[in-house]
């Protein structure tokens, strides 16, 4: 069993819950209320700004030029391809640049991004990759699952989202990260592997909280905003 297969087996119950989440199912079946998606887009844009920094930190922590370059490539595509999807959606959902810039991250957005940044800044490269992996891998898996639903790829609002995350390019980046995780786990002690597993489980859980935050339109309570 590869290390990624071990991680997957440990996190399976969380990943199943993520797939079944009404937000995810709502994207695939085109039934998600637009208001929830609008909220998600704003929060995800804020999320991606911090998330992209993990790739920059990956370049810093890499020990060979090839890995440095690949992290640089993913940093570029996150900022210029993935976030372009969000900027396009912002136009479609009448989210102004001003609204995007002034948006406050919800508590679960902060908890998620700051957890990842903490691991990335203070941990090893393997720990950084363990934190990132559920994001890329689970989005690709969700994208590919949803793409099988008739009409999902053609949906007037959610089709482009499904297309992005089920794309060959996104799948290749996710596979590269899985291979890197497998390589980095070789020769690690039992204790270190346990730590990687804990990080992987935590960011898998944060994925769930993020779907939930988006679905319920969670923000800070009004009187303490
Ligand atoms: C919350 C979240 N996780 C993962 C991805 C994939 O990049 C994303 N855009 N947002």
UniProtKB/TrEMBL annotation:
Q: In which pathway does it act?
A: Cofactor biosynthesis; thiamine diphosphate biosynthesis
InterPro entries documented for this protein: Haem_Oase-like_multi-hlx, TenA_E, Thiaminase-2/PQQC, Thiaminase_II, Thiamine_Salvage_TenA
Q: Which domain of life is it from?
A: Bacteria
Q: Where are the transmembrane segments?
A: none
Task: Establish whether keyword Iron-sulfur is in the entry.
Answer: no
**What residues does the Thiaminase-2/PQQC domain cover?**
9-216
SUPFAM superfamilies tied to this protein: Heme oxygenase-like (SSF48613)
CDD domains of this UniProt entry?
A: TenA_C_BhTenA-like
Alphabetical UniProt keywords: Hydrolase, Thiamine biosynthesis
Query: Record's Pfam families?
Result: TENA_THI-4
Write out the similarity annotation.
Belongs to the TenA family.
- Give the protein's function: Catalyzes an amino-pyrimidine hydrolysis reaction at the C5' of the pyrimidine moiety of thiamine compounds, a reaction that is part of a thiamine salvage pathway. Thus, catalyzes the conversion of 4-amino-5-aminomethyl-2-methylpyrimidine to 4-amino-5-hydroxymethyl-2-methylpyrimidine (HMP).
Q: What is this protein called?
A: Aminopyrimidine aminohydrolase
UniProt organism field: Priestia endophytica DSM 13796
